[in-house]
Amino acid sequence: MKGFVFHGxxxxxxxxxxxxxxxxxxxxxxxVGAVTICGTDLHILRGDVPEVPLGxxxxxxxxxxxxxxxxxxxxxRPGDRVLISCITSxxxxxxxxxxxxxxxxxxxxxxxxxxxxxxxxEYVRVPHADLSVHPLPxxxxxxxxVLLADIFPTAYEVGVLNGxxxxxxxxxxxxxxxxxxxxxxxxxxxxxxxxxxxxLVAARLEAARRLGADAVADVREAPGQLVADLTDxxxxxxxxxxxxxxxxxxxxxxxxxPGGHVANIGVHGKxxxxxxxxxxxxxxTITTGLVDTRSTPTLLxxxxxxRLPTGQLVTHTFPLKQMEEAYDVFSQAAETGALKxxxxxxxxxxxxxxxxxxxxx
Length: 361
Description:
- The protein is built from 13 helices and 15 strands.
- By secondary structure, it is α/β, with parallel strands linked by helices.
- The two termini are 15 Å apart.
């Protein structure tokens, strides 16, 4: 089969790789029908995630069809259409029992496209399948469902829930990329008084307005002053960092009100200065986190009911074999206007050779 393989910082290619097979009785093998590219994948390619082994197939978000399951898998079977979660859960360790699947100590957590081969391929092996894939209703398009593998749960859990967004709050979100836009959409579920989106790119700020931001600001034009003006100088109740660079994190800490929350969502590849000399006296809460995806079933039901604007974030679609082109478009988002790129899906469905004809399985 083909997969998108990491060969080191700045080096990756769409190439032949071995077909995956069931290794453990809790595994499932999935034929990938739709996959997307995450900002974290770009961090890996930049060398920001050094624990990724050379030769790893990247990707941790996909929709597909079950083609093979291990003997202990009970909840899905071959032929089922499923969402593959970016987080794998053993369901048994102390963290999984508490719903903190991202911290799984039983062979799960963020492993796909990180510690083991991921989803940017024609087939993928998913460990702990019973808790790590979600059956999909026929009414939910693959292009919509694939955004529930990572960005919507991440924005909702690490941003909105960790930030304790409440009715009447002022919410400022630094970064209007896919995660920041998903944060705008899911923060609206809690009826804040206003949502302020901050970014460098005018097209992304316009997208934030379409998704429900009440005000937008160019990060180069004193966004802190806008927040102060809209809050009588108090600052935002909740500020979310959705970029992953030192300047944006420090901007968040300057815009939050006393007693407010800074929810860091971005993946940071460089050290950030924490100005405790200013923050200690202001009762500010700062949270970080890897998504747990415990909210995925809820978000999936909302998508099926038409309550989440997932499709509005998809700006480019490609056949799966155009993975390298899709990476080029996504990595140059300021020039291409890309928000989320989706490969495969109903629009670019490709006929695959049945797995039973490819190898004994």
